[in-house]
Design brief:
The complex is a heterodimer of chains A (272) and B (374).
Chain A: H1 2-14, E1 36-40, H2 45-58, E2 63-65, H3 70-80, E3 85-88, H4 94-97, E4 101-114, E5 122-123, H5 125-133, E6 140-144, H6 149-157, H7 161-170, E7 176-177, H8 180-189, E8 193-198, E9 207-208, E10 210-211, H9 218-223, E11 229-236, H10 241-252, H11 254-262, E12 266-267
Parallel strand pairs in A: 1-2, 1-3, 5-10, 6-7, 6-8
Antiparallel strand pairs in A: 3-11, 4-8, 4-9, 4-11, 4-12
Chain B: H1 7-62, H2 71-80, E1 88-92, E2 97-98, E3 108-117, E4 120-130, H3 132-214, H4 219-243, H5 246-268, E5 271-275, H6 285-306, E6 310-318, E7 321-328, H7 336-348, E8 352-354, E9 363-368
Parallel strand pairs in B: 5-6
Antiparallel strand pairs in B: 1-2, 1-4, 3-4, 6-7, 7-9, 8-9
Helix pairs in contact in B: 1-3, 3-4, 3-7, 5-6, 6-7
The chains are: A alpha/beta (272), B alpha+beta (374).
Chain lengths: 272, 374
């Protein structure tokens, strides 16, 4: 009987797999690459990609922009040395900022993008709240994840919208998308869909809705009439400054700023 | 009462069996539940891990170089999918931690799920199932089973032991009854032998002596021989009377009691009264003999030990039983042998006795008629 009990106890203790081993403390240093590697917020992907193309044509500088991993992911990858440039669309937290340098390049209008079949061109603030509450019939809202900086930019201008978004997200009323490319795909394929998006990333047949009669544009951002705005920049480790300097020089040059403006962003006068 | 040792040995053998059975019941049921529930928890954790693995594999396909830095977005998605409620550990293929989910210090059963993209291992996921609630549940179940095992064990032990104890009492009573019957039978046989053998021979010798006396034997010698023969005959009568209450056979219980009371009163000077119904139902010989002997023993105690001047005997017929009440104005039953003899006879007849308080003589005996207890 003792053996039986011992076997039962042993089998009880052994049900399941062994626990995870102690983790490795090594950081994710990628193999040295000839190109400058940039990754981070999806809001900067069009800007960084355009600058990379221009640099490649003009100077031979090779810059590779990875798919979006969010501002936080870009900061962490930069700190680990996995990328040379982190693309950010929000302020850095103190623990993130230590050991990194930041250069802001542009301001981006956060807009409500609509599919072609949405029978609206203009939304009032009240309509926006009703839309998030699911009270505008016939329309589907595509939400962004909690960490997305576009949410913060829009919700700073429309108090109460954050709570309505969270209620709709947790209640399963609307879909929540993690990345800009997923949002672009969902907007294009979902009937009568409206979603938070970067103005500069909008491509036909998508269009940006006016809010309270104001149409989003770089000029509207510049004039302050469009208030849902976020600042886009890059972060890098000081020891990689020489490696990223040519790219930064292009981004802050007149040529680069003109390119940025042509994409729909508002270029900053001087890097911060 | 004849000692019959059944209950204690039976209890000594039964107790370990009951303890083992109760312990097994109290332990096996919660243990089986624990094992089964733990297996189901691990299975559920593994299914959750496989869902996480699918999402991670998709992220790795989209961002093969930097997927592990997309943890914040992935975490949000896992949260929305309801996959972050349990401990979750994610490591890339170099065992570096990917900050997804949370772990815990509580006891956890782990399910390990590899993440593969196009046949290449890119990460490993451990999803934990918290064991503390299961332990609490199993302990509650163990407590319940232990309580149930105690109740069942007590029932399984006490019920048979009590049954055996009752059987032991019954067997002892039957043995005592049988012993009394055997004793009476043996006495009856010896008395018959004495009466038919020595008694008849002595009587014949006496008659022949009378005839010789008439024919001229010296009267003085004949008288001496006759005296010796009379003494021998009286001795045989006393012996047969002591072995078997002879009047019972001829007079029945009531007649024998009346005769004994009258002769005993005359012999001892004690004023003895006897109350009894005119007729009693036909009694089995052991019962009649037993009651007769009880009265004999009680009167013997009255005359020899109690120092009483008056005594009373009352026989009453009750439904299904016969009651015998005895009382005197003496010092009760100081003689142990008398009281022990009466107790054994009552027990042998399957009856009950209300024994008097010390210094008192009121004795009530009930004997069942028809075999049931009094």
């Amino acid at each position: 009987m003792r053996c039986t009990l011992a076997l039962l106890l042993l089998s009880a203790a052994c049900a399941g797999d062994p626990p995870p081993p102690p983790p490795s403390s090594a950081t994710a240093v990628l193999a040295p690459r000839p190109e400058v590697l940039a990754a981070g917020t999806g809001a900067m992907t069009p800007l960084a990609s355009a600058l990379a193309r221009d640099a490649s044509c003009g100077t031979g500088l090779r810059v590779r922009v990875e798919p979006s991993i969010g501002s936080g992911g870009g900061i962490a990858a930069t700190r680990d040395g996995a990328v040379d440039l982190g693309l950010v669309s929000r302020d850095l937290r103190p623990e993130e900022a230590a050991g990194l340098e930041r250069v802001d390049l542009a301001r981006d209008a956060v807009v409500l993008a609509a599919a072609a079949d949405v029978p609206l061109d203009d939304l009032s603030s009240d309509d926006l709240h009703r839309l998030y509450r699911g009270e505008l019939r016939g329309l589907t809202v595509l939400l962004r994840d909690e960490a997305e900086s576009a949410n913060a930019a829009l919700e700073a201008v429309h108090p109460g919208l954050a709570d309505e978004r969270r209620r709709s997200a947790t209640g399963g009323r609307f879909r929540v998308l993690d990345h800009d490319d997923a949002m672009a795909l969902a907007l294009a394929t979902t009937p009568r869909a409206v979603g938070v998006f970067s103005f500069a990333a909008i491509r036909p047949p998508l269009r940006a809705l006016r809010l309270d009669g104001v149409a989003p544009s770089a000029d509207a951002v510049d004039h302050g009439t469009w208030r849902a705005v976020r600042t886009l920049g890059v972060v890098f480790r000081p020891e990689r400054r020489d490696r990223v300097l040519p790219f930064l020089a292009l981004a802050t040059s007149e040529r680069g700023r003109a390119l940025i403006r042509s994409l729909g962003y508002l270029p900053l006068e001087h890097g911060r | 009462m004849i000692p019959v040792a059944l209950t204690r040995p039976f209890a000594r053998r039964l107790l370990p069996l009951v303890l083992v059975a109760g312990s097994l019941f109290a332990m096996v049921v919660p243990l089986a539940h624990h094992l089964d529930a733990r297996s189901r928890l691990v299975l559920s954790a593994r299914e959750r891990g496989q869902r996480v693995a699918r999402i991670l594999a998709e992220a790795v396909r989209d961002r093969p170089l930097l997927w592990r830095y997309d943890a914040a977005k992935l975490g949000g998605r896992l949260q929305l999918e309801g996959l972050l409620g349990a401990p979750l550990v994610v490591r890339d293929h170099d065992n570096r931690p990917v900050p997804l989910g949370e772990t815990t210090r509580s006891p956890v059963a782990w399910a390990r799920v590899p993440v593969e993209v196009e046949g290449v291992s890119v990460a490993t996921i451990w999803v934990g199932a918290l064991l503390t609630p299961l332990w609490h549940e199993s302990l509650r179940l163990f407590g319940g089973c232990l309580l149930l095992a105690l109740v069942l064990g007590a029932s399984l032990f006490l019920f048979p032991v009590r049954t055996v104890a009752r059987a032991e009492e019954r067997i002892a009573a039957l043995l005592a009854e049988r012993r009394v019957a055997l004793q009476d039978e043996e006495r009856r046989r010896i008395a018959r032998e004495l009466h038919d053998g020595a008694g008849q021979a002595l009587t014949a010798a006496r008659l022949q002596l009378l005839a010789l006396r008439k024919k001229g034997l010296a009267a003085e010698d004949a008288a001496r021989i006759e005296h010796h023969l009379d003494e021998a005959l009286e001795e045989v009568r006393r012996s047969t009377s002591a072995l078997l209450p002879a009047p019972l056979a001829t007079l029945g219980l009531l007649g024998a009691l009346r005769k004994h009371v009258a002769s005993y009163a005359r012999a001892t000077g004690v004023d003895i009264s006897l109350e009894a119904p005119a007729q009693l139902p036909e009694l089995p010989p052991p019962v009649a003999a037993g009651l007769y002997r009880i009265v004999q023993e009680a009167l013997h105690n009255t005359a020899r030990h109690a120092g009483a001047g008056r005594a009373s005997v009352r026989v009453t017929e009750l439904p299904g039983s016969l009651s015998l009440e005895f009382d005197d104005d003496g010092r009760g039953f100081p003689d142990q042998a008398s009281s022990q003899s009466i107790r054994e006879r009552v027990a042998g007849l399957g009856g009950a006795v209300d024994w008097p308080e010390p210094g008192r003589s009121l004795l009530t005996v009930r004997i069942p008629l028809g075999g049931g207890p009094a």
